[in-house]
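PROTEIN–LIGAND DATA SHEET

This sheet pairs a single protein chain with one bound small molecule, zinc ion, given as SMILES. Inputs appear in the order they were entered. The predicted three-dimensional arrangement of chain and ligand is reported afterwards as a token string under its own label.
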Amino acid sequence: MRISFIVILIIPWIFYSQEKYPQNYFVKPIDIPIALSGSFGELRSNHFHSGIDIKTQFKEGFNILSSADGYISRIKIAHGGFGKAIYVDHRNGFTTVYAHLKNFSEKIEKYVKEIQYKRQSFELDLYLPKNKILVSKNEIIAFSGNTGSSAGPHLHYEIRKTSNQKPLNPLLFGIDVNDSRRPEIRNLYHYNNINSNFSNLNPLKLSLKKVNDSLFRTNETSVNGFTGFGISVFDRQDLANNKNGVYKISTYYNDELINSINYDAFFFEESILINTLIDYKYYINNKERIIKLFKTPGNTLNIYKNLNDGLINEVKGNSTFKIIISDIKNNKLYVEIPIDSKKNIKSENKKLNTEFTFNRKINNSLEYNLNIENHKINISKNTFLKDVNLFLNKESDSLKILNPDLPVFKNIRITFPNTNNLKGNYLVNIDQNKNEIFISSNFDSKNNFVAKTKKLGTFFIKNDSISPSIKSLSFKNNNWISNKSIIKFNIQDKESGIKKYRGTINGKWVLFEYEYKSNQIHYQFDDFYIRSSKNDVEIIVEDMVGNITKFNGTFFRKN
Ligand SMILES: [Zn+2]
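PREDICTION REPORTED AS:
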């Protein structure tokens, strides 16, 4: 007995230690040549991309195949995010994820719909019992689509470690993408004379000369004090021209590796730390993401493969920095930066003008409970990962919390008095691009708005007195629509936005699917439909502040 127990424990250990990424266990999830519109670890807004985006020829409806035998462990349907998504757990300790799906295979669709009707909800997040729905390798589990926060038809595909849901680079498992092209460089930047708290990062663009297809070189550069580099790069594969992320960036100082970034895996919890990897201030002001090839405070990302931080102090004699950028097929691009130490001069960097006079210093190790004219701001420790300056003020009806260049890593709690207490009041934020954004909030016992947000900027109260609009797109009142398989409505709310909707036919809840990108809800006649020739439809839509619109109409249908 004891012996077999030990054997069971040891087998998985051997498996993981010998082969971190089992090869050819997973087949590609779609039966077309793989062209990518997104790569693993790609830099996105406040997060790294957790999978690969497989292009679907601008169409929906391709068969989506399970990459290996397993069982469906989770089905999630959301208006935004992944839209419709399936998670499959496999025996080898990995989970595959398929997202933005149009719909599911028949057996899965039936299972999902029953639960949607039981719970009277389009959105679902189902964790399925082990072995409830088994799937086999290459089985059609779904059809590709464009649901959720997707900018065009594609399949978002992930491989995660099941035990901790850590996303891993799917291309490390042998899923093949033709790629014979080298990564490309957009721009190279020099950070010179960096001070001890990294508060003076001012990237200086270096001009690049192409030496040959694989090598770029800068002019001889002078350095002063602590010096480091930043780079903006992309990679294209053979079957599409999309500019995707690269796989690996290694920086050498006189042939010694001083910084290496490798997009093998990351944890979802650390994804927000992307704002410590990029030059956030430069990104906010110029919309270009520079990857800093040195670590700054608070950067605890696990994408580094060496212990050095990438900074060099006091360069002596003639020396060279070398940067090697690779894609996953090991196509490489080299960049050389020759340094002439005799040219050492004072920093050439121009000081960026800062518009704001900051009136508050925030010490990263302290918690703050600030009160400005009954407006409260709670900032917990490590919110900014370093000591920062803020401008805090109450100006007429708005609360300003400003430092536009600053990434926020933890929620800030804002308590805002609901002054005139009108029906339809809601809290908004204006960012530096003058976008007004609805801020989700609750009321406390004193009827103040309480919001938790990672947004800085100007906060104030707006009023939404206009109810949502509902327009029938499939029938006019009392029409016969026997030939239609679907009925659609346009639903919109111009101010605070749509919070929820509900559709019934003859008083019974029916499944209306919501596609927020097209402002449409639709119902597809299904097994749950009560067959009668006269049908009364009711649609109720509510906006974020509780304004409600009701639509009532009748259609006729032959049975
Ligand atoms: Zn994606």
